[in-house]
Amino acid sequence: MFEYFPGNYVWNLSVVAALNSGGLIDEVDRACRPIRELAAQGSDVGTRQLMASFTAVVDDLEQQARTAAEKGHNNAAGQMYFRATNYLTQAERMQSAHDPGRRAIYQRCLDLMQKTFDLIDPETTRVAIPFEGTTLPAYFKSAGPGAPCVIMFNGLDSTKEHMYVSSFPHELAARGISTLMVDCPGSGEALRFGGLTARVESEDWAAACVDYLLARGDVDAARIGLVGWSLGGYYAPRAAAFEKRLALCVAWGANHNWGEVQLRRLEREGENPVPHYWDHVMWVWGETDLDTFLKKAANVHLDGAVENITVPFLIAHGENDRQIPLKYAHRSYQQAVNSPRRELRVFTPAEGGAEHIGLDHLPHVSVFIADWIADTFGTQA
């Protein structure tokens, strides 16, 4: 993996995510160069300075985008807003859950994202999924009337904006497949603005997503799939085990036993995905003390669940994933005995995509997954 900040895995993960989600190396370098010395002090120290440094680049991009739009250069402006969203979401996810400015920063991410849609991607719209008396915020990227659709669940610290800038929905659209990018309970707007925290039973919100898609009337009801990355590698298989209207499932990073992973992290085994880690996970899961959180986390596993998956099931995992050991990918594959088409794809360091959810070579992994889905749905040209 490209390591801009030697020895700081967490910050490096954001750098490669930004670069592999449409970022430009010059802009990323301008954001990172002023904070290189801070990075040597660990992942928690300096996250506010990281935010300020990335924000300076975002400010410049936004001003350039306004100027371009005033001249009628909408494509250029839209691309600038796209990159600004990418950089700001990467910096926002690194902040403390208790940072008083975090909500305002995230609102700016939403505003920049909407400007991108308005200028260069009218096929993507903001939608709201009815869920237990409230709504789950989401983006819907249409591939046309009657197209199959993939529901996409995010992970512990990602948002629907991360999903969009990854360009995975664009890969699916090119193959005739729509995408519903969802801020699940415990993530994105659902957490920050709606106060919805994570829960074990991901089938609850999967069912709400399927209900929403069926009510739209422009989605092929027989071809609705589910993809989840990172912690979504738990959410998606769990949901597919019990929500039988789904036609396929992808675990983009096999999070077979996330509860066990938390115990490893207590022993400082493996890497954390974000700074301020324990504050972050307790915020996501709605707990205020570590012991209670760990008791809840012990139930976040797929033992006894993946056996109930009865649709095609892809597990994509990096050989050098420093957060989630490869053994969990094998465990999910071994237990998914009732899937009519199960596949384990391990990405190696030699080809790239070997790190967590393939962030070191994200396009390589996303293209493979998009092709697998298109082959399964029968939309591949």
Quick rundown:
The chain has 16 helices and eight strands.
What do you see in this structure?
- The protein has 381 residues and is α/β, with parallel strands linked by helices.
- The protein has two domains: 1-122, de novo design (two linked rop proteins) (Up-down Bundle), CATH 1.20.1440; 123-381, Alpha/Beta hydrolase fold, catalytic domain (Rossmann fold), CATH 3.40.50.
- It is 47% helix and 15% strand.
- It has 16 helices and eight strands.
- The protein has helices at 9-19, 25-32, 36-39, 47-70, 74-92, 102-120, 160-165, 168-174, 188-192, 203-216, 232-242, 258-266, 277-285, 290-297, 327-335, 362-377; strands spanning 124-131, 134-141, 147-153, 178-182, 219-229, 248-252, 313-318, 342-347.
- Strand 5 (219-229), helix 11 (232-242) and strand 6 form a beta-alpha-beta unit.
- The longest helix has 24 residues, at 47-70.
- The two termini are 33 Å apart.
- The mean pLDDT is 97.
